[in-house]
TrEMBL record:
The lineage of its organism: Eukaryota, Viridiplantae, Streptophyta, Embryophyta, Tracheophyta. Its main location: membrane. GO terms for cellular component: phagophore assembly site membrane. The keyword Repeat applies. Keywords: Repeat, WD repeat. This is Autophagy-related protein 18c. It comes from Malus domestica. InterPro entries: PROPPIN, WD40/YVTN_repeat-like_dom_sf, WD40_repeat_dom_sf, WD40_rpt. SMART domains: WD40. Residues 1-40, 305-329 are annotated as: Disordered. It is a peripheral membrane protein.
């Protein structure tokens, strides 16, 4: 699989990212400005994506894209065009750089091209072209990662040079995660075998293969520093948490007994909670038995980062497991663990929120024990949970930001 890279020279964003022409660049494509289309009555929602700190989300639509702030909820801007929509709209934190991939009906931006868009200048400042459709794109301040069905390309964001190529098992969902702490550089992606997750610690030049499940991986998520990985298979009953340094299985929680499709997994910044959404219409909150070291990672400055990583990076799982008893529900029959089916001794969810079934929802943690839930039906929910007693979550806010029929991503 080959790619063509085109870039513009001398473009600087507020995040101090610069795009320079690479020696092996291909011919630059021609792009016209996004043209406004004021007709909003037939807009269809195609995709939803969180930004790196989950404070914003982007919505790809059939005629452009929109950006929303979560707390407080607000549409910050939208861009419409007449040539079609975008199936991938990835933000880079809150700066003006976006990465766009067109939908199949986009006559100007096809689904095999990655367009780097400077919204402040309202123009494309670079593109990647591939021979097959792009399944996902992931960003951090120093990397842009493009996911194809069988291969992943990692580029340096400063000069667009190719840094890594990774072969994967068939990955039509485009599963891939990046750490976002400035002092760690971790990538998670499917391995070459069913149920396997490959972890790349780029800063340490370490590769770890984790055999997470017997069946195919359906969803996974990394903590901000990339130290912990949460995974679910296409059975959708169990979610497992691993140490990414040595692959140790730290904890297992149970969404349910019946098969389900897991849409998203979110880990709270303080690593105390895990949220999961599925096609069963319930968002589950689980208590994590992971020791919390220091403050919220998202608030750490660069001086604090290395110390925390060194403290956490032991090959022993002991520093990662809390001695406290989990707050999740478990069966009183756990003393018969060797006799009864495994789910009798599983850790069940601590808190729940119910939504319409068969609608895709993605989740993220908000402030003060709250969870943000965004749906492909164009709905925004903010819910709070009791960190002591758990139970049914309370809806604090509901907004219908786009009235559209639910459509899977």
């Amino acid at each position: 699989m080959s790619s063509t890279v085109s870039t513009s020279r001398g473009i600087h964003s507020p995040a101090r990212l610069a795009m320079h022409e690479s020696p092996d660049s291909g011919a630059s494509g021609s792009f016209s400005p996004l043209e406004p289309d004021t007709n909003d009555s037939e807009t269809e929602l195609l995709s939803l994506f969180w930004n790196q700190d989950n404070g914003c989300f982007s919505a790809g639509t059939s005629n452009g894209f929109r950006i929303y702030n979560c707390e407080p909820f607000k549409e910050t801007f939208r861009r419409d065009l007449k040539s079609g929509g975008f199936k991938i709209v990835e933000m880079l934190f809150r700066c003006n750089i976006l990465v766009l991939v067109g939908s199949g009906d986009n006559s100007q931006y096809p689904p095999n091209k990655v367009m780097i868009w400077n919204d402040h200048q309202s123009r494309c400042i670079g593109e990647f072209s591939f021979r097959s459709e792009v399944c996902a794109v992931k960003l951090r301040r120093d990397r842009i990662v493009v996911v194809l069905e069988h291969k992943i390309y990692a580029y340096n964001f400063m000069d667009m040079k190719l840094l890594h190529q990774i072969e994967t098992v068939a990955n039509p969902r485009g599963l891939c995660c990046l750490s976002h702490h400035p002092n760690t550089s971790v990538l998670a992606c499917p391995g070459l075998q069913r149920g396997q997750v490959r972890i790349e610690h780029f800063g340490l030049n370490v590769t770890k293969l984790i055999n997470a499940h017997d069946s195919h991986i359906a969803c996974f998520s990394l903590t901000m520093d990339g130290l912990l990985l949460a995974t679910a298979s296409n059975k959708g009953t169990l979610i497992r948490i691993f140490n990414t340094m040595d692959g140790t299985h730290l904890q297992e929680v149970r969404r349910g007994v019946d098969r389900a499709e897991i849409y998203s997994i979110a880990l709270s910044p303080n690593v105390q909670w895990l949220a999961a959404s599925s096609d069963k219409g319930t968002v589950h909150i689980f208590s994590l038995r992971v020791r919390v070291l220091g403050e919220d990672l998202s608030a750490h400055n660069s001086a604090q980062g290395p110390a925390m990583f060194q403290q956490n990076s032991s090959n022993s799982p002991d520093p990662l497991i809390s001695p406290n008893t989990s707050a999740n529900s478990s069966s009183s029959l756990s003393f018969m663990r060797g006799v009864l089916p495994k789910y009798f001794s599983s850790e069940w969810s601590f808190a729940q929120f119910h939504l319409p079934e068969d609608t895709q929802f993605i989740t993220a943690f908000g402030s003060q024990n709250s969870v943000i839930i965004v749906g492909m039906d164009g709905s925004f929910h903010k819910c709070s949970f009791d960190p002591v007693n758990g139970g049914e979550m309370v809806q604090q806010e509901y907004v219908r930001f786009l009235k559209t029929e639910s459509r899977p991503r």
